[in-house]
What we know:
Layout: H1 3-27, H2 34-37, H3 39-61, E1 79-85, H4 92-99, E2 109-116, H5 122-132, E3 136-141, H6 148-157, E4 164-168, H7 178-189, E5 193-200, H8 207-228, E6 240-243, H9 244-249, H10 260-270, E7 275-285, H11 291-316, H12 323-353, H13 360-378, H14 392-402, H15 405-418, E8 433-434, E9 437-438
Parallel strand pairs: 1-2, 1-4, 2-3, 5-7
Antiparallel strand pairs: 4-6, 5-6, 8-9
Helix pairs in contact: 1-11, 1-12, 1-15, 3-8, 3-13, 8-13, 8-14, 10-11, 11-12, 11-15, 12-15, 13-14
Amino acid sequence: MDAGGTATDRRRAKAALFVVGCGWAGMxxxxxxxxxxxxxxxxxxxxxxxxSIRTVLLQALRPRHAxxxxxxxxxxxxxxxxxxxxxxxxxxxxLVEQLSELRYPEGLLQLWVVDDGSSxxxxxxxxxxxxxxxxxxxxxRPADAGGxxxxxxxxxxxxxxxxxxxxxxxxxxxxxxxxxxxIPFAEAGGWAAVQLRKAVANxxxxxxxxxxxxxxxxDAVIQExxxxxxxxxxxxxxxxxxxxESVLACGGFNEATxxxxxxxxxxxxxxxxxxxxLWNPPVREEAVLSLRALWRQRQRWAEGGLQxxxxxxxxLLSNRLSFxxxxxxxxxxxxxxxxxxxxxxxxxxxxxxxxxxTVWPLSLVALGLSxxxxxxxxxxxxxxxxxxxxxxxxxxxxxxxxxxxxxxxPWVTLRMALLPKRLVWAKxxxxxxxxxxxxxxxxxxxxxx
Length: 449
C-alpha cells in the first residue's frame, strides 16, 4: 500500500475512534441519575464558557486601535500575488484588471495565475490579458494533474522569488491600498502569515448570504480574540499572505488534504511560525446562494478541519506549542468538533432511554457566545461591504444558521469513519456578478467520498 493509502487508513481509523468516543460520552449520562447526568455538560459549559468569555467578551470590551494606514517601507519586499483558476472565464478578466490597480512600488509586484486544466475560455482570456499587463505570468496544468488547489499552488511556488505571496481565489476583490497596509503590518508584526478578514460581497441577496456575512464577521472576531489571549489564528484560503520561506520550510502545500489553508495553518503552528489576522482592509468574496451549495462547501470544510487534527494531533499537544496555544487548540476542538458529536449522541440517548437531553447547557453557552460574537463583529467599524444591521431577528437568524454545524460535523465524521476516501475535485461556479455584486464563494474545488 502506498503512503497516501496508509495515511487515509489512519485517518479513517482515527475518525472511527472519534465517533465511538463521542457516542459513548454523549449517551453515557442518560444511564446516570438525572441530577448526575447534567454534571459533565455543566462542567464543560463552565470551563469552555469561561474560556470563550475571556476570548470573545473581554476582547469586545477592549479599546480598538485605528486601522493601519498606508505606511511606506524604507526597503519594501517583493510580493507575488497567486491565483489558482479553473474555468474562471466569468471573473478572470476582472480579477487581473483590478489587481493591476494595486498600489505597490513598481517592479516589486508580480501576478501569477495558474490555469488549472480549464475547459472554458480561461486560457484564451489569460493569453489576451498577458498582452495588456506585463506583470501577469501564466502557468498551465493539465486537467488530470491532481492535487487540486494545493497542486496548482505547489507548481507556482517553485517559480516565486518574492518574500511574500498573497493567495487569492479567482473571485477575490481587494482595495487598491491593500498591499500598502498589509505588507507593513506583516513585516512589523514578525508574522509568517497574515489572514485578511473575509467580507461577503452579496450579503443582501437572501437570508443565507446574510447569515454567511455574519459568520465571517464572527470568525474574524473569534480569531482576533484567540490570538490576543495567547492562542492561535488560522488561514482561510482567500486573502492569505504567506512568507515564502516559511511555506517552503513546511514542505509547501499538502496535496493530500481537501483544505490546503487549514492544513498549512497547523503545519506553520507546530513549526513555531505565527499567523496574524487583519480586520481592515478585507478581501471581498461572494457567499454561496443555495443550501445545496452550502452543504457541499461545509462538508469540505468539516472534513479538512478534522483531517488536520488527526494528522497533527501529537504535535499540537507537544511542548512545541506554548501552554496557552495548547489550551486554545483543545478548547476550539471541543467546541467546533466534539460538541456537535455529543449533541447528536445525546439526542440518540434521550430517545433510547426516554430521558431528557443532557448536553443542552454546553450547547446553550456555545450558541449564546456565538450570538454575542456576531453582534460584536457586525457592529465594528468595517471597510468593504456593509455588514448586516443587528436586531433581535438578525441575531436569531445568525444563531439558527450556525446550528447547521450540528448536522454537518456528525455527518462528515461518520462518513470519514465508514467510507474509503477518494479525492474528487468538483468545481464551484464563479458567476462574476450576482444581484449587482461582483464575486463568488471563493471555493474552487471540493472533495467527496
